[in-house]
Write a structure and sequence with these properties.
By secondary structure, the chain is α/β, with parallel strands linked by helices. It has one domain: Alpha-Beta Barrel (TIM Barrel). It is built from 11 helices and 13 strands. The strands form 3 sheets. Strands 2-3-4-5-6-7-8-9 form an 8-stranded parallel beta sheet. A 3-stranded antiparallel beta sheet has the order 1-10-13, covered by helices on one side. A two-stranded antiparallel ribbon has the order 11-12. The chain is globular and about 55 Å long. Bound molecules: N-carbamoyl-L-aspartate and zinc ion. The site of N-carbamoyl-L-aspartate has 11 residues, from loops.
Length: about 350
């Protein structure tokens, strides 16, 4: 069996910089037409000119890894409490950026320059609402009293819903939703709200992370939740509903920084995302909706045409081997292990 889809896009991708960028850029370029590039570098991508410079570093890395590739990085700015509304609006109007990313300060990898209180960035958000600039949100509260497994649900009640009531015209993407609460919140909203879903949160729950030994390569943020949440995510992704689309959150860290006494958060799923998704959608009896999720809903939300090219996935008789680790200097990045046999490959 084979299925052919419009070439997919990745609406949430970490490519990093320097040696890591050079090591991973070609992997995403091989499968995806475009990717929305997350700005959490050190220091972060804050201004329009930072985004222009980072985009050209990405393009250089892609052409080295895959000469002639038509892969397009789409840029975001990292929202800080010093961000200038004028710079954001100009960067969006000139096509330099497609969205702005809100990280609650301290929520995840390289989020220290993020936002401590949304009220401090209201003037920027108001300008974004006025000019139709999309806000991508890392939706977790950071209060140390709130349990890590509850941080997404609490963010909806304490931060996101109040913000959307105050500024209903703002177009918001809840990035990498991981809970039933998250998909229900999106399902119950009438306009201006969408969500990305990652490959790994459609495949693993918190038992994969914690049972029978701690598995640092499954540690990511937001953390994987209970199985009932995973099932709600699969139902949302497979529904065909235009408000859900693929954002892999592929987030490479070296093996030594993952397998550590304080391991980094992030799953590197860029090499096998499409094969994994075919498996998830097939199991849900929803292969017909894979194209909407991976290739159509995202561009529609961002007002872009779908890719012209296509990709073909083929069902094979024996389980595929895991992709090889990606070498970075003396270290490597371990690809996502989907914890089950995968019988699909991109041909
Ligand atoms: C991401 C990273 O490593 O940059 N990590 C992760 O676990 N997802 C940051 C993020 O998207 O939260
Ligand atoms: Zn991310």
């Amino acid at each position: 069996m084979q299925i052919t889809l419009r070439q997919p896009d990745d609406w949430h991708l970490h490519l990093r910089d320097g040696d890591m960028l050079n090591a991973v850029a070609g992997v995403s370029a091989q499968h995806f037409g475009r990717a929305l590039i997350m700005p959490n570098l050190v220091p972060p991508v804050v201004t329009g000119s930072d985004a222009i410079a980072y985009k050209s570093r990405i393009e250089a890395a892609v052409s080295r890894a895959m000469p002639g590739s038509s892969f397009q990085p789409l840029m975001t700015l990292y929202l800080t409490e010093q961000t200038s509304a004028e710079d954001v609006v100009n960067a969006a109007a000139s096509g330099t950026i497609l969205a702005v990313k809100l990280y609650p300060a301290g929520a995840t990898t390289n989020s220290a320059s993020g936002v401590t209180d949304v009220s401090r960035v209201m003037p920027v958000l108001e300008s974004m609402a006025e000019h139709g600039v999309v806000l991508c949100v890392h939706g977790e509260v950071t209060d140390s009293n709130i349990d890590i497994f509850d941080r997404e649900a609490r963010f909806i009640d304490l931060v996101l819903d109040p913000l959307r009531r105050q500024l209903p015209e703002l177009r918001v993407v809840m990035e990498h939703v991981t809970t039933r609460d998250g998909v229900q919140y999106v399902a119950n909203s009438d306009t201006n709200l969408a969500a990305t879903l990652t490959t790994h949160h459609l495949m693993i729950n918190r038992n994969h992370l914690l049972v029978g030994g701690i598995r640092p390569h499954y540690y990511c943020l937001p953390i994987a939740k209970r199985e009932e949440h995973r099932q709600a995510l699969v139902a949302a992704a497979c529904s065909g509903d235009a408000r859900y689309f693929l954002g892999t959150d592929s987030a490479p860290h070296t093996r030594s920084t993952k397998e550590s006494d304080c391991g980094c958060a992030g799953v590197f799923n860029a090499p096998n995302t499409m094969a994994c998704l075919a498996s998830v959608f097939e199991e849900a009896g929803a292969l017909d909706n894979l194209e909407a999720f991976a290739s159509l809903n995202g561009p529609a939300w961002y007002g872009l045409a779908p890719n012209e090219k296509t990709i073909t996935l083929e069902k094979v008789g024996t389980p595929c081997v895991l992709p090889d680790p990606i070498v970075v200097g003396e270290d490597c990045v371990m690809p996502f292990d989907p914890a089950r046999d995968i019988y699909w490959q991109v041909i």
